[in-house]
Amino acid sequence: MSARDFSRLHQGNIVDFIVDIFDRRGADSYLGEAVTMSQHMLQAALLAEEAGAGDDMVTAALLHDIGHYTNEFPENALEQGTDNHHDKAGASVLAPFFPDIVTACVRHHVQAKRYLCATDPDYFGRLTPASVQSLGLQGGPMDETEIEDFRKISNLDAIVQVRKWDDTGKVAGHPTPPIAHYIPVLQRVVEAFAAKN
Ligand code: FE
User: Residue 117 pLDDT more than 70?
Assistant: First the structure.
């Protein structure tokens, strides 16, 4: 089933829709990095799994960059869905189907990099050259006021943790399970969210 066949996303097709994006678009380059987009997101998810993270966190790691594909999502799911704002765009398209902790990690993963650059002395040195370059476009390290505001955001620990998996999941040739491995995880998260909403 092609993503374009969906006239409307709902709880019953959102997981297939996401998997289809990985299948069709996963080989897209991840600008300036040594891995493709799907390799990167799968590596981040695997790091979460290896750390013993629960379904929500594995999902957040897996989907943190889905906003690069928001042009795949039907309708006017997002108003600000440009690739320049892939963090906010990704969170917008996931919000109807995934819990706050997942969307928060997606929404704030770029800001979390700015936060960590300002607060963790070792962090900057671990960024890839491409990530250092994009930092400038993203506003550079946070200033004191921004740090203070960022610390008030709920799910801060989760957001920071996903960011670290994001930064680490950029290793050329590092093997991961295929996206199919994560289908049951995504389904559990979507179903648990739907049951509560
Ligand atoms: Fe990323």
Answer: yes
